Structure formats: C-alpha cells, structure tokens
Description:
- The chain is α+β, with helices and mostly antiparallel strands.
- Helices cover 26% and strands 36% of the residues.
- The protein has helices spanning 25-33, 35-38, 130-146, 159-171, 200-217, and strands at residues 3-5, 15-21, 49-54, 61-68, 71-83, 87-92, 102-111, 114-122, 151-156, 176-182, 188-195, 222-224.
- A hairpin with a 6-residue loop joins strand 3 and strand 4.
- The chain starts with a strand and ends in a 12-residue tail after the last strand.
Amino acid sequence: MITDNLEQTDVKHPLHLSHSYKASASKVFEAWTTPALAEQWLFKNATNQINFQIDPQEGGEFSVMEYDEGKAIVHFGEFLKISKPDILVFTLAVPERFEGVSVVRVDIEPVSDGCRLTLTQTNIDTTKTAEAWRLMLTNLKEMLNNESHSSGCYEAHSAKQSTLIRMVLEDHNITYRIEHNINSDGQPTERYFVDLKNDEWMQQNISTLDLALENATDADLLWRFDDELKTDEPTF
C-alpha cells in the first residue's frame, strides 16, 4: 500500500510517498541506480521506451530518454547524495512535464519482512507529479516481484575480465545481457546479467559455473538479487 501526504492548496508543498517492499534495502536501492533495472519501472508506462545513462556517484549526472508515441521526453538531473543502501538524493528536471528543477530524496529502511521506502519531492508543483510517482512505486513492486531469486550478475572491471566472463558464459551456452556502467571511482565497468529462472542447466549447475568464473578471473564474481544470498556489489 502506498501512503502519501500532499497538501493540494500549496503547489510548493513537498510530496511524501511511502511504500513497503518484500525485498532487501540493497535490492531496492539497486533498482534506482542500475539502468537495466530502472528501465523496467522508472518513468515507464505501457507504451513508452526508456533509455538510461547514469553516472552513479555524488556529483554524477544522469539522463533518461523517454520515447512515447513519436515524442521524445528528456529527464535529467544530478546525484547529490548516494549512501547505499539507505539514502539517495538527486535533482530531477523534466521540462515537458513540470516547470523548474525538483529535488528527490529516497530513504530506504529495513523492516522485518523487507524494507520501507519513503520518497520526498520538493521545489516544484508536486500536484503534477504525485500520480506518476504513485504509479512508478507500484511498478517497482511488480518488477521486484518478477525478479527471479536465481538472477544475478557478473561484473568486470577490465577488458581481460570481460573477455573471460564472456568465454565462460558462452562455453556453457548461458544467455546474458551486458550493461555498461561507471563505478564509484569513475572507472568503466561491464555487468553481465544472467537469468536462471528459465535455464534448467543453470539451476542445476550454478556452483559449477561460479567455480569456472572464479578460476578464470581469480575473483569472486557472483552477485545475486536474492535476499538470502549475497546482495552487496561484487568487489575486485
């Protein structure tokens, strides 16, 4: 259930929305800062296509191109604070949708059965954005519910690691998608997302694959979207 507090008579009054998720705080935080995940729910509707470019560090910028029924809508802003997994603050401007530059703060608090997210938007007429945020927070819940507990990614911080990961995955006929990103140190990375949900071999042989990747790259590469497994980002 989404709860909100919006004073309609004051167009500059902050928007406050809260939503509970049956997922870890880390998992929900990643859904905001990982393009392949954010594109599934953030600014997404039934007819549009979304393309994210994100530099996930304080002072880093992001841009979102939304294509909908022949129109191109630009969303852009700057990350003001990133404190994984509990606080994310950024500016947001969408000239086609509202005037001015807003500030969005996302607080994520662990609870016994998952986490609770509180979103606050300020500095604009939030009557123009409230309904869209309610829909997006619901979309986030649906996206998290659809994520397989056997999904995960392998992250490469060098061309050599990228080559080795691809070789191992392809040798085992594993389907994957690649996401190019920038880490907190400003270095380029590649993430190889795999979905075990529809791959019987992966479900039966995940430990074998992990070992092959670990031996090939001399690193513990596995990071899974599973609350009961490792949820921190992989380190090298």
